Amino acid sequence: MMKLRKLWALPVLVLTLFGCSGAPEVSSIYSTAPEGAVVLFDGSDFSQWTNCDGGEVRWKIVDGIMEVVGDSIWGCDRIQGTMTKQLFKDFQLHLEFKLPENENTNSGVYIQKRYELQIYNSFNVEPAPGMGGSIYRQKVPDVIVGKANGEWETYDILFRSARFDPDNIEEKIENARISVIHNGIVIHNNVIIKAKTGVGFAEGIEAGPIMLQDHLAAVQFRNIWIVPNEAIETLPESDH
Question: How many structural domains are present in the chain?
Fold first, then answer.
């Protein structure tokens, strides 16, 4: 129990800042993985990842950076991309991403393969459904702080999974909640996610992976780590 309190010390500190008015800048987020974090990608290998079908990762590592290799076949169900081997419920996730400089394209962070936080150009744009930083088709960001394509950006995501009745696991009793810090600025403050987003999988009591979307563009990722608040599960070995 002491270990769990230690792991969640940072998220609790951040959430206390969310009561501020406006869009506060948050300086307490670590830029490198804190003690107790699971490092999902440090630039060295894909040991923590698998393809969306459970097979070998099809993307590449270039100079320590994860880069999408667009798969025109799109053979996975619903969502294409690369996902973690480990499954998570409640957590704090940090990742850095960069959109191709001369392309107007997108990607996304899928939480539990159910809820998408959109990765898309949001530099000097008007609020619109599906824009960068949006909870896909449910809520645009409170403020727009995206950088120009070709520049590194950060997402810090604090997520609390939906709750289900332990005596009837098909009955949801609490919606999932999310807070998002984009480039050091709070853009979603303890927001209720009413249901799965877009093509996401149905909600359920089970934990799920973190999935980075393949949308046929060479989006790059680096410095990915997660602080779970409970024991984590691992996907079974695949035959692929």
Answer: 1
Domain range enclosing 101: 2-231
Q: pLDDT, tens digit, for every residue of 112-132?
A: 999 999 999 999 888 988 899
| Residue 144 identity | I
What is the distance of C-alpha 99 from the center of its chain?
16
Instruction: Establish if 185 belongs to a structural domain.
Output: yes
* CATH code: domain of residue 83: 2.60.120.560
Closest CA to 153 of 225, 97, 107: 97
Domain membership flag for residue 131 = yes
Q: What is the pTM of this model?
A: 0.86
